[in-house]
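Supplementary Methods S3. Complex input for the pyridoxal-5'-phosphate-bound model.
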Amino acid sequence: MERIYLDNAATTKVAPEVFEAMKPYLMEEFANPSSTYRFAGQTHGKVDDARKTIADFIGAKESEIYFTSGGSEADNWAIKGVADALSTRGKHIITTKIEHHAVLHTCEYLEKHGYEVTYLDVDEYGLVDPAKFEAAIRPDTILASVMFANNEIGTIEPIAELGKIAHNHGVIFHTDAVQAFGHIRINVDEMNIDLLSASAHKLNGPKGVGLLYLRTGIKVTTLIHGGSQERGRRAGTTNSAGIIGFGKAVELADERLEANNEYETKLRNKLIERVTTEIPYVKFNGHPEQRLSNNTNFCFRFIEGESLLILLDQNNICASSGSACTSGALDPSHVLLAIGLPHEIAHGSIRFTLSAETTEEEIDYTVEALKKIVDRLRSMSPLYEDFVKKNNKN
Ligand SMILES: *Cc1c(COP(=O)(O)O)cnc(C)c1O
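Predicted complex, serialized as structure tokens:
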């Protein structure tokens, strides 16, 4: 088997159409779109077109889309920007224990600068409880940030409902939609979203470009100071090729969203079904239905996720344990701990995230490889040996 790529939550392949759309703007049409001569005009126009495509995709206005270097920057800007702009009104922020580190570490940074942050618990599926969310709101709460869909376990949060609660209390609502954008239909008005983060490389666009949707009238301070790009609010020479590629990726996502979801859901369900029935002592993580169509996450008891990853890699299978940011570290995933898994089980977690290019053959090959690898690792595991001994006694 050639390489089997099942880590699409970490990043995706640039679609050929996206690459073709970008190429001229890296080569002959290289002008800085802020320049005034005619040579720059064509690039400037294309960047505007991309902004319009993307704004339409989420029911926003073009003037509400700000391009950034990616999801992490958009998360930082949204949270630091609102916190700074509204500090005289209050210094309390609500978020959840299962956010991406771009949100969690930003909140921790703000805690060192006089803000108070409530990190909401989630249930065993990773869902935020709207009643607990509402109960956490205080008179000095300025901002709530809840991710649209979780990058590790795929659970989709009740964003429209949470946004409505936030608005009823005059709280600004941000969502890190990096995993959802291009995979779930989003309408910022219907879903009561004030700020939204997205990133091109999670939907077959290029790395290094993302966006912050900022609802008209919401105050944020500037994160990147310098020139007057992005209507004076985000400096830096426009990443024209990246933005044009992002626009194309959104155009494709818009056309293919339902078909891709249907296809991926079928394969995803097959993977879940086979792994949970053919391998013993497996725990499936995340919500059974309210989840991203391409996400699966399992814990294999008595095994370290890291060892599993290495052996999968030897079989040419790319997967991930927890988030890309935590693999390499030996701390279990904060998301799996938040859904109540004990450390020793959380350590044995593996995430497989599919794409529209994943084939049934690849899923079958992966399951067969997993069965062998899990057997082999368990046969070397003292924990498993103890467990078997104890079971035999009973
Ligand atoms: C990937 C990811 C990010 C970070 O986006 P970058 O563009 O890589 O900075 C943030 N949040 C979530 C949920 C993600 O999956």
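Residues 323-328 have pLDDT under 50 and may be disordered. The first helix runs from residue 16 to 26.
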